[in-house]
Amino acid sequence: MSDTTYRRGGQPLVDSLLKLAVTSDTNPSARAALAELRRGVTDPIRAAKHVIPYLPATGAGSAEHLIDRYFLVASLFAWSRQHQPGVSMGHAFARIRDDSGSMEKRLMALLATPAETLGARLGQCVRLLAGKGVGLDWTMLLDDVLHWDDSGKPRQRRLARDFYRRHDAVDDAGAEASANPTKEGIEQP
Predict the structure, then answer these.
(1) Secondary structure (DSSP) of the chain
(2) Which of 14, 47, 116, 185 has a C-alpha 20 to 30 A away from that of 21?
(3) Whole-number pLDDT of residue 9
């Protein structure tokens, strides 16, 4: 099976992650699953039982580099657990942009990162955003990561546009919702 199957199949995984986040306050097994996913950043085998069931059905010799990206995004979700539909990494950085230019530099460093070393840089960005109470659209992030090394870098260009376009037009409702790290921004599947 081709890379195309992996590049289209992320929604079931994200739906599962959102369900874990929504139920984690009352469900000990959901809390345990999120803890295993967090440890999956450095040990993907720990996250396997929470990711593999949601991978697209494939044949032998599938694109391992794309499978690794599913594990990466699932593990990073467990660090943040904040979902904001329609908020890309570019939009998120625009929401926390300040006069120092540090957010712009961080985003530009992320956009210049090759796919092979994306995990570490993306992890820093996700933890920074989570610390500021800013959520992401995890389906969008997974799709971006799956297409990170596409010819012409269309994902990186879109994220840069989202950052610069949103700087002057961050909507008040979105800024208020991202500042509140409650579950109100998480949609139940």
Answers:
(1) --HHHHHH--HHHHHHHHHHHHHTTT-HHHHHHHHHHHHTTT-HHHHHHHHGGGSPP--TT--HHHHHHHHHHHHHHHHH--B-TT--HHHHHHHT--TT-HHHHHHHHHHT--GGGHHHHHHHHHHHHHHTT--B-HHHHHHHHHTTT-TT-HHHHHHHHHHHHHHTT--HHHHHHHH--SGGGPPP-
(2) 116
(3) 64
Which residue type is seen at 122? L
pLDDT in tens, 21-55: 999 999 999 999 999 999 887 888 888 899 988 88
Tally the domains of the chain.
1
Rg over alpha carbons for the chain, rounded to the nearest Å, is: 16
Which domain range does residue 14 map to? 3-185
Which CATH number is 104's domain given? 1.10.520.40
- pTM confidence score: 0.80
